[in-house]
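Q: How would the structure tokens look for this protein?
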Amino acid sequence: MAEAGIDSSSITVVALTHTHLDHLNGLLTRDGREGFANLGRIVIAHDAVASFTGEPHLARFRQLLVPIGDGDRLNDHLAAVAMPGHAPGHMGYVLDSGEDKILFCGDLIHVPAAQFALPELTWAYDDNQSMARATRINLLREASNTHAWLAGAHMAQPGIGRIVEEGSGYAFLPVACGIHP
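A: Here is the predicted structure in token form.
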């Protein structure tokens, strides 16, 4: 955010994909302060609320939780999309400007170098590997067919690109540096 010139105090809503610590830790700074001084809502899947509230160090954020479900709209251009398999309540988001679409897939892809070419490849951190596999295959097919941008947490920088069919799998074409989708 600092590199992009975004002041963290301007953030009022955070939409979580799931409750693994590597996705929650940004709510607090390294010294224990709140990462977003003006945070008013934390959007989270209904099925992920229990694991969030089970984290004692996040107790100060519980009153900000806004549970959502598949298809719920966060605003005119942003909607929640259930992406089950990785973690309870794993949620993705689709940002649709009317001209372009970005699918935020959280942790549905952990090993990009392998899972684009072999989307059936599962990962030990997926709670339900067969469900994660099916969700990943459907996501990649949709991203390829609709020419949507795909963004994920464990993809190399810039972390966003297009998906194209390649052989029996897919290839990830990262956005060119300096060009915004």
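The chain has a mean pLDDT of 93.

Residues 142 and 148 are 8 Å apart (CA to CA).

Upvote if useful.
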